[in-house]
Amino acid sequence: MWNIAKRLCLAGLGAVAGLAVAAISAPRVAAQPTVVVLTQVACQFVEAENGIDRNFTATRKADCEAVNAKSGAARLAEATPLRLKPGEYIFRVTNKDVPYSLGFWLRSKGYNWANPVHKLTKTSISGGGMTTGKTLEYKVTLKPGEYVYSCPLNTTPDYRLIVGG
Fold it and tell me: I need a surface site. Which of 31, 89, 131, 144 has the fewest CB within 10 A?
């Protein structure tokens, strides 16, 4: 009887050791980036303005410059800042119906593209070529702090993004 108990005990220890080795050597699955969906319509991002599509009409950048000169500051004051946790993100941005090519620019608040130190120490991602109906993705790691995002080609306001812990 002692031999049977001894063999069961040793077999159990072997199984536990095997599990420990499997747990140590199991590959870790990297966390997937969180997707943030943004929709551009003429002169604005819909989600940034509390889900309201203001139905502006624009056939060129100058149209949005005029619209936002009149109403941009007031709309921005009413906009809810996007709040995220630090981490990896994919911004999935769609040109819903603007009849010209758009872009997207997310950067640290106060970022100056002409300042070489900012290029080394602050966040800035951007891209263009977003034709009508097209969706593009922008991957970024966000650290705690304040950011802004906009479309310089659609001349939107600089919407706030706050990343906190």
Answer: 31
- What is the CB-side half-sphere exposure of residue 104 using CA atoms within 13 A? 24
Would residue 3 count as lying in a domain? no
CA atoms within 13 A of residue 81's CA, in its CB half-sphere = 12
Establish if 108 belongs to a structural domain.
yes
Question: What's the burial of 106, exposed, middle or buried (CB within 10 Å: 0-12/13-18/19+)?
Answer: buried
On whether residue 26 sits in a domain, the answer given is no
Q: What is the CATH number of the domain that holds 43?
A: 2.60.40.420
Q: What is the pLDDT along the chain (165 residues), one digit of tens a residue?
A: 545 444 444 444 444 444 444 445 556 677 899 999 999 999 999 999 999 999 999 999 999 999 999 999 999 999 999 999 999 999 999 999 999 999 999 999 999 999 999 989 999 999 999 999 999 999 999 999 999 999 999 999 999 999 996
**Does residue 161 contact residue 84 with C-beta atoms inside 8 Å?**
yes
Q: What are phi and psi of 56, to 5 degrees?
A: -70, 155
Domain boundaries, position 123: 34-163
